[in-house]
Amino acid sequence: MAQQHSFPADLLESQVAWYITYGRLADSTVTGTGVAACRRRLLALSARIAAHPYWDTRAGTPAARVALKETARALVLAEAAG
């Protein structure tokens, strides 16, 4: 039985922003200071996600971490599809 997760909006937004930033970094047209800015943003977002208080609750399980990533990735792909 799959468990439903209710993520705080700021946590989900940070994970979505992480995927968007990662996509920009992977874009071959981003060069120079754009690459450095993307890397700094990824580090900041990673720290924000990892240190979020949600992970200190009973709901903050390893399965929830995977579900957060899957949910955020689905949102990014849906937005890209139009």
Q: Quick recap of the structure?
A:
The protein has three helices and no strands. The protein is mainly α and 82 residues long.
Number of helices: 3
Oligomer: single chain
Find the count of extended strands (DSSP E, 2+ residues): 0
Helix content: 55-70%
Radius of gyration: 14 Å
What string gives the helices and strands in order? Answer: HHH
What structural class do helix, strand and pairing data support?
A: mainly alpha
Instruction: Indicate the proportion of strand residues.
Output: under 5%
Q: First CA to last CA: what distance?
A: 31 Å
Give a written overview of the molecule:
The protein is mainly α. The protein has 3 helices and no strands. Helix 1 runs antiparallel to helix 2 and helix 1 packs across helix 3. It is flat.
Q: How would you summarize the topology of this molecule?
A:
Elements: H1 9-26, H2 33-50, H3 62-81
Helix pairs in contact: 1-2, 1-3
Salient structural properties:
single chain; mainly alpha; 3 helices; 68% helix; flat
